[in-house]
Amino acid sequence: MSAPWDAILREMCTGALSTVWSLFKIIVPLMILIEVLLAYRLIERMAAGIGFLSRVLGIGKDALLPLLVALFMGVSYGAGALMEINSRTPLSKRDFALTAIFIYCCHGIIETTLIFAAAGASVLFVCVLRLLIAVLVTMIAARLPWIQALSH
């Protein structure tokens, strides 16, 4: 019995193209949004509105956009936004590290919370607990000597 290699190859190609198309539909608009936010200095306005968060976390205001993207869209898109922002307006190593720590701790608050809600968890409890843990871990990390050394 021979393997249907043409069917396997066709499935691999259509699956890969489908995945690339799905990523393209999300990443391209995200990159356009980042460009618009940078061009019209909207990041600075947004950062002013949530500036307390940068002070609490010990990060610069330029790092807030990728943090917000990750919070709502997930770690992959947040990391992509972090890389894009960093290529346009380089963040300090300290801000980059602290933002990455926050993104790792608390990402995709909407999708993950919905999964927990479907399992019967309290949406408010899950959201608040995840945010609280991310803020506390980032605040602690900001005071670690090796993170502080990154700003020098």
Structure report:
There is one protein chain. With 152 residues, the chain is mostly helical. It has one domain (42-151). The protein contains 9 helices and no strands. Helix 4 (64-73) runs antiparallel to helix 5. The longest helix is centred in the N-terminal third of the chain and has 35 residues, at 5-39.
What's a concise summary of this model?
It is built from 9 helices and no strands.
Number of domains: 1
Main sheet specs: none
Strand content: under 5%
User: SSE order in H/E notation?
Assistant: HHHHHHHHH
Shape field: globular
Low-confidence stretches: none
What is the straight-line distance between the termini?
66 Å
**DSSP helix count?**
9
Structural class: mainly alpha
Q: How large is the radius of gyration?
A: 19 Å
Overall pLDDT metric: 83
- Helical content (DSSP H or I, runs of 4+): over 70%
Which terms would index this structure?
152 residues; 9 helices
What's the arrangement of secondary structure elements?
Blueprint (H helix, E strand, L loop, with lengths): L4 H35 L2 H8 L1 H7 L6 H10 L1 H14 L4 H13 L3 H10 L4 H20 L2 H4 L4
